[in-house]
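Teaching assistant here, posting this on the class forum so everyone can see the example we discussed in section. The complex has two components, and the goal was to see what a joint structure prediction looks like when all of them are supplied at once.
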Amino acid sequence: DGGITQSPKYLFRKEGQNVTLSCEQNLNHDAMYWYRQDPGQGLRLIYYSQIVNDFQKGDIAEGYSVSREKKESFPLTVTSAQKNPTAFYLCASSRGTGGSYQPQHFGDGTRLSIL
Amino acid sequence: AQSVTQLDSQVPVFEEAPVELRCNYSSSVSVYLFWYVQYPNQGLQLLLKYLSGSTLVKGINGFEAEFNKSQTSFHLRKPSVHISDTAEYFCAVSEWGNEKLTFGTGTRLTIIP
């Protein structure tokens, strides 16, 4: 079955450390997204990519970086510059360009905590 | 800029009773509207969507929502809830021509046996 796989499910970061969250999809979707979820704040967009080798900042991009070298993969790096990284991170994908009418499909998330 | 307001952060409902979860949006252009459900420690699952056409939209698990343009609302309803409906529900909006979704802050639905 097609879907979105996020790994790991749980991740711990030490102070000053960069960590990378994996997101892979086999839905043949063009667009991919990263969201951060905090209690009572809903989902906030970190970065999104509509095509390979291109991505745009979302509403809260500071302290994060991404790459989109393959259509299937959109890893998110949480850098040491992100001072409050503890959150639930969700990856999503959709058919993309010209398809804002296409709903986004979500992975099961990665919960990041600070040691 | 688009925005979404979910006024109720928590809604407790007795089992088999009806429920309505409220969602209002703000946008200067036409929009697409969505309801997602999130079970604990999982991602979001699409419940239903409004793209165009009939303002009454039916989704999975017996849920439905009605798009009201004049009141800029997209309330979610279910005539009889079950314990399995316990989850957090998110309303989201996307403006035509815009790839980005804007989410509300969520409503936690708790079913009381």
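For the discussion questions: The first strand of chain B starts at residue 3 and ends at 5. Chain B has a mean pLDDT of 93. Think about how each of these relates to the inputs above.
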